[in-house]
Amino acid sequence: MAIDLLLGLQWGDEGKGKIVDVLTKKYDIIARFQGGPNAGHTLEFDGIKHVLHTIPSGIFHPTATNLVGNGVVIDPVIFKQELDNLVPFDININKSLLVSRKAHLILPTHRLLDAASELAKGKAKIGSTLKGIGPTYMDKTGRNGIRVGDIELASWKTKYKALRNKHLAMVANMKVELEFDMEALDKAFFEAIDFLKSNISFVDSEQYLSVAQKEGKHILAEGAQGSLLDIDFGTYPFVTSSNTTSSQASIGSGLGNIKNCYTLGITKAYLTRVGEGPFPTEQNNSIGEKLGKIGNEFGTVTGRKRRCGWLDLVLLKQSVDICGIHGLALTKLDVLDQFEKINICISYDFNGKEYNYLPPIISSTNDLKTEYIELDGWNESTRGCRSYNELPRNAKKYIETLREITGVEISMLSTSPEREDTILFKDPF
After folding, report:
1. pLDDT band per the 50, 70, 90 thresholds, residue 298
2. Dist CA 369 CA 382 (whole Å)
3. Residue 75 known to be catalytic
4. Fewer Cβ close by (within 10 Å): the C or N end of the chain?
5. What is the pTM of this model?
């Protein structure tokens, strides 16, 4: 039996999808344990770009079973769209994809509640993806939600209509302008439900994984989004509605004996963020524009332009500690190829006091001063490099600096979105 864990260490968009895709040939089961269609994983191989939201990133490996765990929230309409996009690739969905009966469903009215709530906040908005994630988790913890297993019951539509009507009353009370066609939303939702019931196998994930562990199956727990978006340890309130750190892997999947697993953390060579919230190293200048342009930094889910800045080792080390990271996978190093000088944040100054962590009391970073070290750039292309020896000397120095300051080994380096453009310094698993 072997259980490994992989998750992002920033505000999402770290390149987790590619890393999981590269590693999945080693695994029997890929178990997604939190989040929903607010996550977006991009995979590129054979000249084709694939974007996944809810489906685990191992779906293109024929020997892997992909499990959507109980900690995930599922929008049936979006899920069906994802499945429709896989049709040309001749994937046996019924065999390779399983969904936990305990995963909660995102109703159309959850999305309406999300949009109405964000409108009502005005300038105080948090930058929601408007996918209904927050309202769904609220219903889950409020014990009002509808789970995948419920749709196997003959009476599930009665429960659906009661919850839908409750949501519509809440939207009306917010007194915001929101246009929608409820009849059309209901129709699309029911059609998607029927499709999932006919084409997807539902399982009790904790039982399934318990048997798999006893059979000695090799399991990878896959996180979505990033640890800085964690509802408890992220930049609250500008976070997602679930726990995105390593501890959630057990709760969100039903995996036991996960304490001794190897945990691989994914980080970009710089830092990005979508939506509102603190961002100490953000570059609202030509540097940020250059990072965004070269890195093609637009949200996979929202299409919004990502905020860009230098790598923040204060936040990275914070994520490393909280998640118990054993090794790092570094992505998008090639985006830094054209910079003469590269900065790395190593500490903060807040109200005259030095911090080696982000003070939780701040809602913005206007009064936070960042302390940097400056490294020479390399002005050579690293894109597509497949061995450490191919890297320029200053690129190697950058990587070694990250290792020294974080105290964590660099296990993998991604030099392009393509599956093959990956340097394995040390097999993490």
Report:
1. confident
2. 31
3. no
4. N
5. 0.89
